[in-house]
Design brief:
Layout lengths: L1 H17 L11 E5 L15 H10 L4 E3 L5 E3 L2 E6 L5 E6 L21 H12 L16 E3 L2 E2 L1 E5 L2 E5 L7 H4 L10 H7 L13 E7 L3 E6 L18 E5 L4 H9 L5 E3 L6 H4 L14 E16 L12 H9 L3 H8 L5 E2 L24 H11 L10 E5 L4 H12 L5 E5 L2 H9 L5 E7 L6 H4 L20 H10 L5 H18 L2 E14 L21
Parallel strand pairs: 1-12, 16-17
Antiparallel strand pairs: 2-3, 4-5, 5-9, 6-7, 8-9, 10-11, 11-12, 13-19, 14-18, 14-19, 15-19
Helix pairs in contact: 8-10, 14-15
Length: 541
C-alpha cells in the first residue's frame, strides 16, 4: 500500500512539472529550474534567502551591481561620486530605464525611473510598517528627523545618500536586492499583495504564479541593458520555475532533460553524478555541464560562550581540542566528493579579497595536539568531560556524525540533536544552543560581513553574534578597521581580526563552500560569481 502511495505521489509531482510550461509558443527559449524550498514573496523588501534573491534579481535592478570578480559596476546609476569625508554618496542615474509593463500596470505609457523612486524605495525598506528584514542595510544612513532619512532626489537623475559616519562596505551593500527600485503607484494599489503582483525594471517581468506549483517570468522587451554587440538583453524569452519539494524527483527530471539547471549536490545522488575527486562521472560528460568555483559561504560549528555553570565549552583549550580533533580534508573528500574547501584558515572564506591562508592559520587534524589541550584543560583523555550536545539539521547530519565519531576517539563525547532548520535558527538567536551547526553566506563583498558576527555590539537582538563572543581587543580593532577607506589597509586589519578569532576559537570552521551547478549541454552564458547569484541576462538555450 505504501509503495502505491509513493508511486502516485511521484506521478502527481511529475505531472505538475510537465504542466509548468507557460503559454508561450514552442519556438521561444525557456529556462527551467526547480526551487525546492519555495518562495514566499516577489517583493524585494523581503528578498531574504537564495530562492527569493534569485527571482528578485530577474525582476528588479538597483543603483549598482557586482561583476563576477565582486567589483562594483553600474546598473541604474551610470556613475557616482563619494565625498572626501566618505559620508556623502551622489549617484547619477540613467535616463532610459522604465518600469515594466504588465497586465496589472497602472500607467498608460511606460513610466521612467527617477531619483524620487529611489527615495521612496529606500524609505520603504526602513519603514517599521513594512518590517523588511533588510532594514539593517541603511543603519548608517543619517536621519533628518524621526520620520525622514537622508535620501535626496537632487533632480530626476541625481540621487544622494548621506551617512552618519564613513562605512567602506556601503557601496557593495547597495548591490543587495533589498536596495531595488520599485514603483510607488503599484504598491499603493496592491499594498501587501505587491508580493504577488511585482513590477520592477529587471530583465524579466512577471507573468504567472501559482504558489507552490509554478512561477513564470517573461522577457522584458524594454530592458535597458545591451551586450557588447549592442544586442538587447536578455536573450531568453522566459523563465519557468517549479517547486518540487522532493529533491530526488527534481533530480530525476533534470536527468530526463525536463529541467535545464540544478544547483547544489545532495547525498542521495552525489555519487551518481560525481567522482570522489569532484569531477563528472564519465557517462555524463557528453550530456551535462558541471560548473564549480568558490562560493562565499563559511560552514561552521558555533560555541555558545555565555557564562553558564559547568560549561566546559567556555574553556578555550576544549574548543581548540575539538578544532584539532577531526580531519577536514577527509571529510570533504568522502562526504562531499570534494565539493568544498577544507576550513583550515580563518572564518573569512576563500573567494574574499582578504582571504589569506598564509597569514591566517586555522586548525588542521592533529589528534596528539588535541589530547595535550584536553590535558591542559583538566580533562586528561577526556576523563571528567561531560557529554556535549551538538544541534544540527538533517542536511548536515552526515558531516556531524563523522565529527562525532572522530572526536570520540580522543575522549570527547558528542550527542547529536537533530532539529528542523527553522527551529534551530530561532534557538540560535535566543542563545539556547550550547553547540550548533551554522553557515554564513556573504551579504556583500567585504570581510566585515563575516567578522561582524563576533562584534560585541552585534549580540542578539541587534545583530548576528550567535556565539555571544565578547572580546574588547577584537572590538577595538574591528571599529578601527571601519574607519579605513583604503581597501588594502583595511584588509590588513581583517587579517589580524581573523587570526585573533582562530586563537580564541569561538567556532569550528568546517569548510568554505564550493558552488556546484549542473546544466544541460545546450545552456551557455551562465555567470560564475562567488556569490552564487543566478544571473540569466546572458544565458542562451
Amino acid at each position: 500500500m505504501k509503495n502505491n502511495i509513493l508511486i502516485l505521489t511521484v506521478f502527481f509531482i511529475i505531472s505538475i512539472i510537465h504542466s509548468c510550461n507557460p503559454t508561450i509558443s514552442s519556438n521561444k527559449t525557456i529556462f527551467r529550474y526547480n526551487e525546492a524550498v519555495g518562495i514566499q514573496s516577489l517583493d524585494p523588501a523581503y528578498a531574504s534567502g537564495q530562492a527569493a534573491i534569485w527571482v528578485c534579481n530577474m525582476l528588479y535592478n538597483g543603483l549598482i551591481d557586482l561583476d563576477d570578480s565582486l567589483h562594483v559596476v553600474p546598473a541604474i546609476a551610470k556613475d557616482w561620486i563619494i565625498s572626501p569625508d566618505s559620508k556623502t554618496y551622489t549617484f547619477y542615474l540613467r535616463d532610459d530605464v522604465y518600469f515594466q509593463n504588465t497586465e496589472n500596470y497602472i500607467w498608460k505609457t511606460p513610466r521612467k525611473v527617477t531619483a524620487s523612486d529611489f527615495v521612496y524605495s529606500f524609505n520603504r525598506i526602513i519603514s517599521p510598517e513594512v518590517a523588511s528584514p533588510g532594514a539593517w542595510i541603511f543603519q548608517k544612513v543619517a536621519q533628518n528627523d524621526s520620520d525622514s532619512y537622508a535620501f535626496t532626489a537632487l533632480n530626476d537623475t541625481v540621487f544622494q545618500i548621506v551617512l552618519t559616519e564613513p562605512f567602506p562596505p556601503f557601496l557593495g551593500i547597495l548591490a543587495m536586492k533589498y536596495a531595488s527600485v520599485v514603483p510607488h503607484e503599484v504598491i499603493t494599489k496592491y499594498g501587501k499583495d505587491f508580493r504577488k503582483f511585482p513590477v520592477g525594471t529587471g530583465p524579466f517581468q512577471f507573468q504567472l504564479w501559482k504558489e507552490g506549483i509554478k512561477l513564470v517570468l517573461r522577457k522584458n522587451e524594454n530592458y535597458f541593458e545591451k551586450d557588447e554587440n549592442n544586442t538587447p538583453l536578455p536573450y531568453l524569452d522566459a523563465v519557468a520555475i517549479s517547486f518540487i519539494i522532493d529533491k530526488q524527483v527534481a533530480f530525476m527530471e533534470f536527468m530526463k532533460g525536463n529541467l535545464d539547471f540544478m544547483s547544489g549536490i545532495e547525498a542521495g545522488y552525489k555519487d551518481a553524478l560525481l567522482t570522489k575527486e569532484g569531477t563528472l562521472q564519465e557517462e555524463y560528460k557528453d550530456k551535462i555541464t558541471l560548473q564549480t568555483g568558490p562560493y562565499l559561504n563559511t560552514e561552521y560549528l558555533g560555541f555558545l560562550l555565555q557564562e553558564k555553570e559547568n560549561n566546559p565549552l567556555l574553556i578555550k583549550e576544549v574548543r581548540q581540542a575539538i578544532n584539532y580533533g577531526f580531519d577536514r580534508e577527509k571529510m570533504i573528500e568522502y562526504l562531499r566528493n570534494n565539493m568544498g574547501y577544507a576550513g583550515t584558515s580563518g572564518f573569512v572564506p576563500m573567494g574574499m579579497v582578504s582571504f589569506n591562508p598564509e597569514r591566517v592559520k586555522g586548525y588542521h587534524y592533529d589528534p596528539q595536539k588535541a589530547m595535550e589541550l584536553l590535558q591542559k584543560a583538566g580533562y586528561p583523555n577526556g576523563e571528567g568531560l561531560p557529554e556535549i550536545s551538538l544541534s544540527v539539521s538533517a542536511s548536515y547530519l552526515d558531516l556531524c556524525q563523522y565529527i562525532q565519531h572522530e572526536l570520540n576517539k580522543i575522549g570527547i563525547r558528542i550527542s547529536l540533536e537533530v532539529q528542523q532548520a527553522a527551529q534551530q535558527r530561532q534557538m540560535m538567536r535566543n542563545y539556547q544552543l550550547p553547540f550548533f551547526r551554522g553557515s554564513w553566506i556573504c551579504d556583500y563583498p567585504d570581510a566585515e560581513n563575516y567578522l561582524s558576527l563576533f562584534y560585541s555590539k552585534n549580540l542578539q537582538p541587534y545583530g548576528s553574534n550567535y556565539t555571544h563572543y565578547v572580546n574588547s581587543e577584537f572590538d577595538k580593532l574591528f571599529e578601527k578597521s571601519q574607519t579605513i577607506t583604503d581597501e588594502i589597509s583595511r584588509n590588513e586589519y581583517y587579517t589580524v581580526l581573523d587570526s585573533l578569532l582562530m586563537e580564541d576559537a569561538p567556532v569550528v570552521v568546517l569548510f568554505y563552500d564550493k558552488k556546484v551547478r549542473f546544466t544541460q549541454k545546450n545552456i551557455s552564458g551562465l555567470d560564475n560569481s562567488p556569490t552564487n547569484l543566478l544571473n540569466l541576462k546572458r544565458v542562451k538555450n
